[in-house]
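#struct-help
A.M.: can someone run this one for me? Single chain, 165 residues.
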Amino acid sequence: MRGQLCRPGVRFLAYGLAGWTLDSLFVWAHTGRRRPSGLLNVPVYGLAQPLFEPLHDRVRRRPLVLRAAVYGVGVLGVEYACGRLLRRFVGRVPWDYGDARFGVDGLVRLDYLPLWAAYGLGLERFHDLLTRRAGASSPRRPCRAAGSRACPPGRGWRCRSIRRA
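D.P.: on it. Structure tokens below:
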């Protein structure tokens, strides 16, 4: 992928679709169910844009084990909160851990903490890819932080949501 995804809404969708795809593949590998996960998971995974990106920027230089622990606990917290909200407003959640040995209110599984930690570490690279922050060989500058202009002024280049090669 070339270019930057500077608009937060586009990155929200990118995180959402990537998470939904990985979730569907995990469910298929774990249970054999070929049907993809529910589309209600897309906005839940999309929350990585406003929640994960600032966290990643703050812990980027911390030790790997600490980052993994923070990501794992953070994902479990977001999954639990989203599950509570979805149950309250939609009446159900697209996942059900009611029968799981380490399930909490049927909304999260504590034994998935290592998987969520690994997922968070994978999101680090995805975040950097989307914003071209680490090791970018392109002369383009990275997207600015939230709250500033979406793309900084430069020498003749414009930041597009997706720039074709």
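A.M.: thanks! Residues 134-140, 145-165 have pLDDT under 50 and may be disordered.
D.P.: also worth noting: The two ends are 8 Å apart (CA to CA).
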